[in-house]
Amino acid sequence: MSKFNPTFQQKAAINYPDSMVITACPGSGKTTVIQEKITAITPELPGHMGVAAITFTNKASLELKRRCVHNAHDIKQSFFGTIDSFCYKELILPFLSRVWEGKVKDREVIKELSSYHKSVLLDQYSSPTLENVVKDKGFKFMYDEGYLWISSFAGLALYILNESHASRRYIKSRYSHIFIDEYQDSSLAQHQLFLKLFKLGMVAIAVGDKAQSIYEFRGGNSELLEELIANKNCFKHFEIDINHRCHPSINNYATKLLHPESKIFECDEIRIFRRNLNGNLISIGETVSDWILDWLKKGEWGVEYSSDFALLVRKESSLKLLTSGLTVGYRSYTNTLLDNIGTQCSDLYKDLLAFRYGAIETAQEVIDSVFPLKIIKDMGVANIRKSVHQLRENLSLDEIVSIFNRISSAVGIIDTEEEDQAVADIIDNPESIRQFMRVDKSEVQVMTLHKSKGLEFKVVFHFDLEEWSFPFQRVINGDWDNPVFPSLSQDMNLHYVGITRAENCCVLVRAQYRQNRHGEFGLSSPSYLFKLEQLEGLYK
């Protein structure tokens, strides 16, 4: 790992000792800043304490933890994981039984509510708040019937902290700091929990970027990040706005997209391109394949491997069309059968498949990601690790499923029939199983814009830039002449995220023919995103 030489902005954020908000643009080195802060804090802590580092995905938490333990650094009793995992492992599992009777570990954690569960709640919630949990008796009713809804974890955790002195004493004695990354995607319930932990005496650090808010449909609210910034009495604001990833011309285009009045930086050449390509996405897949092979041969844009290229689409249907025309090796990241099931068991099975086929490197990463602390204590880490390690052996499908069953049973998941069949179908499908393997340098990476968040590539092709494809439009009262953009700010942010995945070159593609919702192809018009006046002169 090369020596880190922080910029003035980065150094100021790293050295500040108290509660703070860091707003960080893409490519600004925010993960390194978080890492540097954690590794500076933990040596000063007693052995029984640590920091809580909350990230948006398990993959991000594993990467942050790897970086923090580099060179055998002792992170003490620190937590690395998602907000849901933190709430469950540190508050709900050990303390909910003190305010609601019954063994928490006997409750099934569900990701989606059945129609019956929806009927017992007073409202439709995306991320229930403390007020919702207290006022709506449906949450307690579900618990009594043996279920915990994962989307309610933040509200439940806050309820526990308010009701249980033991939980407050535990959290204060265990953690000195809480870090929450991707704060722009936090829900109101998660925001309230963050503020509660701050009031309990933890040093609270929020890191985010309003421009990368793309999860409002899940309850995320970027205004909460602005609220923290405005709270100058409690949180000092640090801005890290130098993009070290993207070529200046790409950064200029992306910045002007969201901030028309912003200044642009001089650069020697423009490396963002708009291309109107003949045909539909199938034939365009062939055209782009030829470009990729030619650029690889010439070493254009600094590329060395096929995996240096990303093909990003807005819609899963576009992904299928595009890949059907590709003549280069590729890996397509789509929702698998396990994603579509969306249960605690399916999440466990995805991690086990990722370990068996190499995307997750060590058994400990699986353990850290999946297993509640109490269960690890009861079963013994060695036994769990042994079961996970067996998945790397030469096994038949029946043997793989049997080990999956054994591990799921160990964490209290008994009903696995649907997930077992999904595993069998995934293993039987070479394209599906590739998603659980290590990245292959010979494969172009193909995915939706949402799945690209947090990644970076030498060259990005961004598709679906036709009217009606992206941004999303809706017709109101049959007025086809005046469609509306119901989620324009989110779509603009998503476009920004896609563009800023590119380091050296970004190609924005409009297809001559777009596919409508009936599967028919017709002549396209340029996307609204191609009509923005502030972007003129910033592309070729």
What does it look like?
There is one protein chain. The protein has 540 residues and is α/β, with parallel strands linked by helices. Helices cover 43% and strands 15% of the residues. It has 24 helices and 16 strands. Helix 1 (8-15) packs parallel to helix 2. The longest helix is centred in the middle third of the chain and has 18 residues, at 281-298. The mean pLDDT is 93.
Q: How large is the radius of gyration? A: 24 Å
Tell me how many strands there are: 16
Class of secondary structure makeup: alpha/beta
Total DSSP helices: 24
What percentage of amino acids are in beta strands? Answer: 5-15%
Short synopsis of the structure:
This protein has 540 residues and is α/β, with parallel strands linked by helices. It has helices at residues 8-15, 30-41, 58-68, 83-95, 115-120, 130-135, 138-144, 153-163, 165-174, 188-199, 223-230, 248-258, 281-298, 316-325, 337-341, 344-357, 363-370, 373-379, 381-389, 397-410, 417-427, 430-434, 449-452, 488-499; strands spanning 20-24, 50-55, 79-82, 108-110, 147-149, 175-180, 203-208, 236-240, 272-277, 309-313, 330-333, 444-448, 457-462, 502-511, 513-515, 521-523.
What is the element layout, followed by pairings?
Blueprint: H1 8-15, E1 20-24, H2 30-41, E2 50-55, H3 58-68, E3 79-82, H4 83-95, E4 108-110, H5 115-120, H6 130-135, H7 138-144, E5 147-149, H8 153-163, H9 165-174, E6 175-180, H10 188-199, E7 203-208, H11 223-230, E8 236-240, H12 248-258, E9 272-277, H13 281-298, E10 309-313, H14 316-325, E11 330-333, H15 337-341, H16 344-357, H17 363-370, H18 373-379, H19 381-389, H20 397-410, H21 417-427, H22 430-434, E12 444-448, H23 449-452, E13 457-462, H24 488-499, E14 502-511, E15 513-515, E16 521-523
Helix pairs in contact: 1-2, 2-3, 4-8, 8-9, 8-10, 12-24, 13-14, 16-17, 17-19, 20-21
